[in-house]
Amino acid sequence: MITVENRFISLRSAVCFIVEGGIIIFSVVASFILLHGRAGTPVVSMGDVVARGLVITFFCQACMYLLDLYDLKLTQTWGEMLFALMIAIGFVCVGIGLLSYAIPKFGVAGNMYYLSILIASAFLLVWRVFFELYITHFAPHSTILILGTGEVARLVGREVLKRQRLGFRLAGFIGSPGTRNPSSIEGVGEVLGDPSRMNEIVEKHGVRKVVVAITERRGEYPVKEMLALRVSGCQVVEWPGFFENLSGRIPIDNLSPSFIIFNDGFRKSRFLLFIHRVVSAIAAMAALVILVPFFLVIAFLIKLDSTGPVLYSQTRVGQNGRRIRIYKFRSMRNDAELNHGAVWAVKDDPRITRIGRFLRRSRIDELPQLFNVLIGELDLVGPRPERPEFVEKLESMIPYYSLRHTVKPGITGWAQVMFHYCGTIEESKEKLQYDLFYIKNMSLKLDLLILFHTLKIVLLGRGAR
């Protein structure tokens, strides 16, 4: 596995991406070599061919990324995988044709176009079949053993099971010492024995990492057995850090305050915050200048669709609990909160207008908040600001919720790209776990990753209500 900003990134996904990029470039170059000098083949140098191959590769792999073909956590049937590949190749065929017509310098025309598509399609299909067989039957796995059988152990076990295609395998559980343990944890795995047999179980199952998922240390830690494993070369790690790396979120149930107090994360240098602010302000200014004509069109459509103002403002809770007023394009009826006050939006909410449904799905309704970024109330990336009516309730019910307000809120955030829209207390609780991950690991690299994922969500209209 590769680690980026304290979160596991699948090495398998990276290898798949690189190999398929090579296949597409190879297809363009091979078609040029095979057809060189024949009628219908463009007269270009090899350097130009490689440049065109790179442009086509970018376009093709962007389509494959949007179709989730590089998200190996998702389990797809052979039919679903092949269908997604065919859709991606179809988009590429149309895209290359349009590119060749609009910008001939970067396009591929004539017989070279058809042969490039044929070679790329054949090799991509063969590679994907081979790759799928490899990761499901032959690839090595990192075998995990979990010490503990409580709710925390079950939570960690479920996350490991979700990532079997990424190279993780759950051997099972070791019962907590001094307690009566079940024979298995339903839907997750078996309890293989007690700590006295831990060394034997590690050797039998080829365990590479033991995750300690016991929340109460006094009198329960099998210190002697864990020390023996550690000095023998087996990794022994505590569950909060492992869970954070694996899932991209920080669990708040059973989390000791010491994890936050003594952890290296959560501290932000003034230089990082300054750069973060400068980049956000410059990007917001540039975007506002470019989008002015687009904003006028959106304003016209809103007025045409329903009565009421174009912009809608709401009071939100910003950094350090300060109240700020953010702006959106109005996507609901003008009387949406007349009878019930502030309530979360629900799926197929009847208050949403026709043009508003499109604005919310595409996240265009959020664009006026670029003005809030410009004046320093928001950043481009950060936890989404919540309404005061909800914050008071959530802070009383969810531990560590107030930590969201230690950084400046943003237009988009880690919770927005990793989790769907939340409309309940439980969903807000899970969303907070992603926000805490961002606050702990905040950096420009993580911001770029979030903006990259945000583009995908906007293009596909995912997660909106």
**Which percent range fits the helix content?**
40-55%
Q: Rounded to an integer, what's the Rg over CA atoms?
A: 26 Å
Number of spatially distinct domains: 3
Strand ordering within the main sheet: 5-6-4-3-7-8
Number of strands: 12
List the helices and strands and how they pair.
Blueprint: E1 2-4, E2 7-9, H1 11-35, H2 46-66, H3 78-102, H4 110-138, E3 142-147, H5 151-162, E4 168-174, E5 184-185, E6 189-193, H6 198-205, E7 209-212, H7 223-231, E8 235-238, H8 239-247, H9 257-262, H10 270-305, E9 311-317, E10 323-329, H11 354-362, H12 370-374, E11 379-381, H13 388-397, E12 410-412, H14 414-418, H15 425-441, H16 444-460
Parallel strand pairs: 3-4, 3-7, 4-6, 7-8, 11-12
Antiparallel strand pairs: 1-2, 5-6, 9-10
Helix pairs in contact: 1-2, 1-4, 2-3, 3-4, 5-8
What would the keywords be for this entry?
465 residues, alpha/beta, six-stranded mixed sheet, 52% helix, 12% strand
